[in-house]
Amino acid sequence: MPSDLFRALFAPQHVAIVGASDDGSKTTSRPVRFLQKHGFAGHITPINANRDTVAGLAAVPSITAARALDTSPIEHAFILTPQAAVAAAVENCIAADIRVATILAGGYADAGTEGQAAQQALVEHARAGGLRLLGPNSIGVVNTANGFCCTANAAFEVDRLLPGRLAFISQSGSMIGAVVSRAQAHGIGFGKLLSVGNEADLGLGDLGLMLAEDPDTDAIVLFLETIRDAAALADFAAAAARLGKPVAALKLGRSEIGQEMAMSHTGAMMGSDRLADALLRDLGIVRLERFEALIEAAPLLVQARRRYDGKLADRPVAVVTTTGGGAALVVDQLGLHGIDVAAPSAALFAQLQAACPIPLRHGRVLDLTLAGVRYDVMSTVLRLLADSGEFALVLTVVGSSAQFHPDLAVKPIIDSAASAAVPIAVFLTPAADESLMRLSAAGIPAFRTPETCAEAIIHALRPSHYRTLPTTKVPELAVTVPVRPDNEAAALDLLAAADLPTARRLLLPPTTQTCQHDLSYPLAAKVVSADLPHKTDVGGVRLNIANADSLVLALRDIAASVAKAAPTARLQGFMLQEMTSGTAEVIVGFQRTALGDFVTVGAGGIHAEVLRDLAVRRAPVDSATARTMIDELRIAAILKGSRRQTPADIPALARFIAGFSSLCATLDWIGEAEVNPLILRPAGEGVVAVDCLITAVDHKGSSHV
Length: 705
Description:
The protein is α/β, with parallel strands linked by helices. The protein has 23 helices and 29 strands.
């Protein structure tokens, strides 16, 4: 059963429009007009202190006056007033026991510190009075199934709204109109659409959870400008995954990669978008690249989830076409992303050839040419391919016949798709609106561009998009940390205490001139100071020290260089390390943010900032997940020994990433940590941490991306 809040949001029996105008040229006239136009059967009460009627309906001066009337209780109020009058309207909603209010006005958190304080006070007062808020800055709520078109978005001036089983949540109010208009031109209907605005009270996670549990919703599509509440988003994603409902998102911010988030290399390179990308991936939320995919991808994701739930995702795609060039456009895109397009088996090909009146070429693309416009040929070929058990999906690419002969072009596809064992998707090479509308009406995923078609197929076949939530838990670590490390030497000691391999080393006091040690030359000598996180910048490192005499000179040189470059730095000593060589160097980092804890691995040493070759996941990760991170790197082939390179110890690297992520996630005072470089030795010989930087924090970060 839907909750009271869900019904008040999407199916109220009585809605009040506060500040409704009778002037059709004004934005505030739209909600009443759209509710009437699209057939909302509930009671509509316009609130206007200056008019007796609005759009032919009796108006009242206030919510208090409306409550005094002998009508059903008001469940939903849409507040259209200027910001200065919102607080009074909210007070009246509380007095009238209204369940939810949508607020159009801005000027709250979007307007700076004072606005944020006003927003917080508004939410606290509303919640105390039993009122939930959508917005501020929300352009409204739409339910096409019952005509509850409670929005000020001009796009809903359209004569008819197509119903559907897709839901759309947008952080941009204008986008709900843009998506609806494009979807309707495609023949795709959305059932429920929301503009969340500032998410002061009801946020994306809360609303997504309601829609995930809605029996009339098959998939949820998101337009994101930011992620404000990662925990609520995770709860929503978990529920959607449990209920078998795909969630797809288009998130802005790709260009933010490289933004500095912290002092360390890792923080600078991870960037806010990398974190968001890792979070969405971990939650099983499909991240879309193209605006058109917001509309076109969801139907295929729904079908793929229903028909095989990822169990056939390792099988190839079959492609049948009436235009070889058109098919190549999609196949090329699929190949770039590792999706296998395969030829049918010899036995299946023999059956296909028997059904076709022209000779066929036995290749990855089955080109039927003009024979493909024959109903009997296309329908038989599609049935054989879809039911063969050889493929995860069948892609049909239709040529010019789709534009002028939709009966010939798409009827066999429509008739074949309903009973097909796997999804059948269609790419129409010409602009063929009638064919597109027919396919969409039949529930068949159809695409207008090869790029969006390929993107949807890639996501439909990625097994990671069928996961629920990461199962890795923070383990119990037998690590005693009497003092939080404030320098590199102490940070390496912490790693060693957690059984993570580190280079052999010795810490010397700052007054050292000579020393006895059991380390093996050659050595590295480094200044130790909490004030100098990047030692090389001040001349605080000497490498390849060959003997005792060279060591004495090196320590003197370091002391002189640091004194000149950073005269106020507090020296805690010198660290000697045995020089370690290997096949490659990587960087492994950790960052604690408002989005959660994240671990990263990438090209290390001097290449870290230049290559920006990184893989990111939410922490902690297990060794298996760490292996997938390594495989994503551009340097992965080199690490594995391509072009006669000595293979690195990949299993040891995966174990280090897993252990490091667990250590950092366990110690909640760690804000950031970085091992750079981590030396990779040849296969079977392990890895060695040479440098480590840890930044402590007293609380988790508060910024969002």
